[in-house]
Each structure stands twice: as C-alpha cells, then as structure tokens.
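Protocol check, entry for the methods section draft. Step 1: assemble the input record (protein sequence plus ligand SMILES). Step 2: submit for complex structure prediction. Step 3: store the structure tokens unaltered in the notebook. Ligand used here: 2-acetamido-2-deoxy-beta-D-glucopyranose. Step 1 record:
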Amino acid sequence: MKLHVFPLLVSVASASWSKNLNYRSPSEHHPSLGISIHRVVKRNDPASSYDPVKLNFTHGVASGDPYPNSVILWTRVAPENDNSNSSLSVTGYAPLFDHDNEKYVKVSKSPICVEYKVAQDKSLSQVVDSGTVFTSSDVDFTIKIEAKNLKAYTTYYYQFNVCGSSNKSPIGRTKTTPHADDDITAVSIAVYSCANYPFGFFNAYGNPVRKDSVDYVVFLGDYIYEYKNGYYGWGDSIGRIPQPDKEIFTLYDYRKRLATYRTDLDLVASHQAYPWIPTWDDHEVADNVYRDGSAELNNTEDSFLKDGGISVDQRKMNAVRAYFEWMPIRQVDMDDNLRIWRTFSIGKLVDLLMLDTRNYDRSITDLYWNTKYIGEIADDAGRSLMGSRQENWMYRTLSESAERGAIWRVIGSQILFSRANQSTLNNNQVNLDAWEGYGANKNRTLNHLYSNGINNNVFLAGDSHASWVSDLVWLDEEEYDPVTGAGSIGVEFAGTAISSPCPYGENITLARANNFSSILQSANSELQWSDLYYRGYFELHFTRDKVDANFFGIPNTRLYNGWEIPLANFTVRSGANRLQRPVAGGVVESGSLKFGRVVQDNVTLDTASGKWFKS
Ligand SMILES: *[C@@H]1O[C@H](CO)[C@@H](O)[C@H](O)[C@H]1NC(C)=O
Ligand SMILES: *[C@@H]1O[C@H](CO)[C@@H](O)[C@H](O)[C@H]1NC(C)=O
Ligand SMILES: *[C@@H]1O[C@H](CO)[C@@H](O)[C@H](O)[C@H]1NC(C)=O
Ligand SMILES: *[C@@H]1O[C@H](CO)[C@@H](O)[C@H](O)[C@H]1NC(C)=O
Ligand SMILES: *[C@@H]1O[C@H](CO)[C@@H](O)[C@H](O)[C@H]1NC(C)=O
Ligand SMILES: *[C@@H]1O[C@H](CO)[C@@H](O)[C@H](O)[C@H]1NC(C)=O
Ligand SMILES: *[C@@H]1O[C@H](CO)[C@@H](O)[C@H](O)[C@H]1NC(C)=O
Ligand SMILES: *[C@@H]1O[C@H](CO)[C@@H](O)[C@H](O)[C@H]1NC(C)=O
Ligand SMILES: *[C@@H]1O[C@H](CO)[C@@H](O)[C@H](O)[C@H]1NC(C)=O
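Step 3, stored output:
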C-alpha cells in the first residue's frame, strides 16, 4: 500500500468535523447512537492518507431541505465505489478496502478532507459560502453540510473538491425558499413516489430536469425497496439488479442498496438540478413497517433468528442511519432520531407539511396474516398513524398556517387519504394499510379542518402505484355533491409510481387497466379521476389564484429515455376547496374520468429534444 503524506495537515486541525452533519447523526446528544468524532480523530494517522487523485466522487451531488438562508448539500468521495460496513469498531479501526492490493484491511487511515463552495453563478466566481469538511469510512464516505449566508428564493451553484487538489465533484444547482412573509407569485414542485430499480429506469426523475419545469422536488417515499431481485422485479432482463443481491438488513446492506439506486442517471440528474424535500414510506426500511415491526419481521426472537439475528429496532436503525447518510435532508430534531416530519414555508404561498405515517409511531398495520383483525380494530379511537406528538404537531401547524395567511396548505402524506373502495376488484374492501385503516386519525384530521374552517388543503400521496384525484371529503358527515364538488374541504392528488408496477398486475394491458379505473371510479363518489396503467409523476404549479396539477405518464420504463405523455390536467381555484369543473377540462388521455371522456391522442413528448412523436 502506498502511503501519501497529506499536504494540508496543518489545516486538518482547523477544518471542521462536526460540519459534516453525518457524524452527528442520528443524535449529537447520544454519541453511542452516532459517531464518536473523538474516536475518529484519535484514530487519525497522518502517515496514512489517501492519494487525492485516486479518490472518486462516486455518486454526484445533491441538495435538499431548502430554507430561506440555507440549504443542505451532499456528496460522497471515496477510495472505491463499494460501500463501507464500518460503523467505527470498538478498536477504533475501520475496515477499509485496499485498492492496490484488492482486499479488505484493517488500517487506520486519515480522514478525507474536502472543500466546498457555493456561488451565485455557474462558473462559481461569485462565492457566497465555502468551507472545509471531513469524511471517512465511518459515515460511508458521505458528506452532508449546511450551506449558509444565502439569500431567499435564489438559485445557487455548488461544487466540492478534495482539499488541495483539482479532483472535483460535478457542479450542482440548488435554490433557497422565500422568507415566510415574502409575497411570491408562483412556485412549482414535482411530486414523486415509489422507485423500484429492478422494475425499470427512473425516467420520470429526469423529465423535469430536461424541461426545467419546477423549483423543488417533493418525494413521498419508497426511494428504495428492500427486496431481493426476482422476488419483486425483473432486473435481470433490463440489467438492473439491486445490490447486495438479497433482502437487506445490515447497515452495509442499506448503504449498498442506496448506492445502487443512486447510479440511475436520471435520479443523479434530478439530485444535481433540484433541491429535494423527501420523506420515507415503508420500503426505506421494510414492507408495511410500523412502530413495532413490518410485514415480514415480527417483534419476536423467532422472527429475528430467521432474519440473521437482526431485530426490528436494529434493522430500523440501520435503515434510518444509511438513509440520513445518503439523503440531502436535515434532522430537524437531533434528539429524536426517527423524526423526519417537518414543515417548509414557501413564502405566503405554500406551507408544506411532510408527514411520517410509517416509522415514527404508527399503530399496528395490515401485515397480511392479520388482515381480518386489522379490519376489526381499524376504527378504534386509540389508533394513530403518526403518534400523538406528530398528530398534535400536524393540527397545530395547519391552524398556524391558516392564521398566518399562507394561501395553500400542502400535506405530504405517504399513503392515500381518501377512501378507495376496491370491493369489486378484490376482497379487501378498503386498503387497511392506508388512512382507511386508521379511521379515527382520519376523522380527527377532517374534523380539525372543517371545524376550524381551514381551507385550500392539498393532500399528496404516493405508495399505491396508481393515480387517484379526489375532492377531499368527510363522507357520512358533510354532504358532498360529486357533480359540483360542494361540501369538500380541499383536494387530494395521489400519484403513481416512478417504476413500481400497477397494483392490479405488473403486465396489465391499457384496456384492462382503464376498465378497472372505471370500476373504482364508480365505487367512490369523491374519486374524480384515476389511472392505473401509467408509471410517472405529477407537477404542481402554485399561484395566489389557483394551483394547476399536470399528471405525466411514462410510456416505457424498460428503456432509458425521456418520453412522456401528458395524462390529465386539473385546476383548483383558491377558496374553492374542490377540483374546478369540468374536472380535467372534461378530457383525459387515460384512466377514467367521472364526468368526462378519455381520448387517446397517442402522442408522446420527447423531453430531451422537445419534439412530439406519434406512438
Ligand atoms: C468513479 O465513480 C464513477 C461513478 O460511480 C465510476 O463510473 C468510475 O469508474 C469511478 N472511477 C474510479 C477511478 O473508481
Ligand atoms: C464488509 O461487508 C461486506 C458485505 O457483508 C463483506 O463482504 C466484507 O468482507 C466486509 N468487510 C470487512 C473488512 O469486514
Ligand atoms: C409473525 O407472526 C404471525 C402470527 O404468529 C405469523 O403468522 C407470521 O408468520 C410471523 N411472521 C414472521 C416473519 O415471523
Ligand atoms: C368517522 O366519521 C364518520 C362520519 O361522521 C363516521 O360515520 C365514522 O364512524 C367515523 N369513524 C370513526 C372511526 O370515528
Ligand atoms: C411481465 O413481463 C415481464 C417482461 O416480459 C416478465 O419478465 C414477467 O415475468 C411478466 N410478469 C408476469 C406476472 O407475467
Ligand atoms: C369491464 O370489463 C368487464 C368484463 O369485460 C365488463 O363486463 C364491464 O362492463 C367493464 N366495465 C366498464 C366500466 O367498462
Ligand atoms: C364498496 O362498494 C360496494 C359496491 O360498489 C358496496 O357494496 C360496499 O358497501 C362499499 N364498501 C364500503 C366499505 O364502502
Ligand atoms: C395538459 O396540459 C398540457 C400543457 O401543460 C397539454 O400539452 C396537454 O395536452 C394537456 N393534457 C390534457 C390531457 O388535457
Ligand atoms: C390510439 O391508440 C389506440 C390503441 O392503439 C387506438 O384504439 C386509438 O384509435 C388511437 N387514437 C388515436 C387518436 O389515434
């Protein structure tokens, strides 16, 4: 192994450790859960440094959780593409891959020193913030810093480089939010959920980059899936086998899985172009995860033994730790390591609430073997999707948002809020794993909105792999007219998956999917449009007077391409609290529209060239 003396050792002392937020994760007040910086520093051997030229920015750059004066910036710089399974061993030595000799060795290596700068121009000459920061195997060589001293609602460019070297990361673009009291006129977001690597390319992520059509990306969960390829997915046939090639449990497993997903070119492009505001759903940990377990992991010793000795808590901790290392997000409460629920004020225009209806404090859900029981208890008043702390925060935040006069309240929920009676299509009358399985929590939410006269509510959801657009109604309580929308208190835009398959068959035909959409649409009075066929995403364009929602379908996720079909467009007028009539202008491209027609134009936009072609 070649040893290189680090040229900037003097500055090592002054450069910041704690600036890399990942060393403090999940909680700086509980070092036993995070990384002991003290131990990493002590291990530091100046004689054993990496050759700066051999280090690699392996997964591009990312930004997220924009505030008016700051934003989170992310990169990974490593001696190899593989991930680390180090979480600082007791000896203080982290196992590392020795590239020259192609094997794992136990050595003490000095940390990697990285500089970053943030500028107002693409050529990075008008620098407004810069700094020096460390990373090491302990945090999988990731770097997450908070760029500060920024101006509100402004675009910035940023780059990392290995200290004292011209080895640089790609240049990223990001954007701060406006101040809460800024009277901005417009803001746009792209909304995503459910990216399954072995099921297809993440083309949906790339299209808003190619069109340059939004300000921010909102992600509602299922950024990765925990399964082994083949169990769910056809990765072999499209050259996308997620690593490690097994169901994931350990810290290394979750890091490696995130790293595999982050090789998708359109995902990398989205992270490089837009600040993300993500939350997780179940698959960032495991299927149908809740407070105390998941579909395939009970909180029992028997179950742990089946899973290689990893308990519910340990698995959740591994998943969450890797997630915070890899995602460009803040930890809003360093003493509450599972807290991801948080708020963003985007001027006077939008207050965005990002929920955690999964990991934080969710009462038991449908785990497939207990469906009947969950059906029986679904309406128990004690059941909560969020736990009382988060529930109370949500009600308080919605009230405060209305009081401060924010025009739109956008609630980023993982799971479908509106009822989806699927009785004629399957035996489960409703999806007990969605809000429907937590009737009291749902009613408390509706009661809060109706009784406090809180309006302009826009619920978002993912999770279901299909598109559902509804008026937001309290059935059996407030009279609702599906024709006019009278009686509703807002709208719900629930989006389809980036690549995860249709819930009614992974190779369903368009005709069959549209037939099913009609059936669902007639069984649910408030469901105005649904489409089951297309994978895709939607954009929301907010102004003071209205919000426009544009749904896009991706015609082919088995190929890497920039094609998309505009499926349906909706408008919500400020103060109307319902979809504008005629809903979707009376015409959609696919699915089933309650009071309108489906007309197949069969034209697709190639977002890369900006040209339309007949499909
Ligand atoms: C650097 O990372 C990129 C992206 O993962 C990879 O394609 C490339 O092979 C790596 N280069 C080296 C020298 O490891
Ligand atoms: C790190 O974890 C991987 C995957 O489990 C394993 O192949 C490798 O041997 C481990 N390395 C060390 C040094 O323990
Ligand atoms: C969890 O417990 C239930 C009820 O005993 C059982 O049916 C199921 O197979 C268990 N699952 C696992 C993964 O152990
Ligand atoms: C929710 O409210 C509706 C309408 O009042 C009522 O019919 C239903 O029983 C309530 N459900 C629960 C769980 O409270
Ligand atoms: C769906 O189609 C893919 C690709 O042709 C195939 O690999 C897969 O087995 C099919 N799935 C089913 C359930 O038929
Ligand atoms: C759906 O298909 C079934 C079987 O072909 C047919 O009987 C039914 O009328 C169709 N429903 C709608 C709403 O198109
Ligand atoms: C679902 O719809 C079917 C028929 O469309 C109806 O018979 C059933 O009562 C509904 N179930 C619920 C829970 O609303
Ligand atoms: C939706 O709006 C876009 C323009 O934003 C338009 O190109 C498209 O045809 C519309 N789609 C439908 C189904 O009305
Ligand atoms: C679009 O394609 C479908 C199925 O191939 C066909 O039935 C329909 O007539 C086409 N519509 C137009 C406008 O070309």
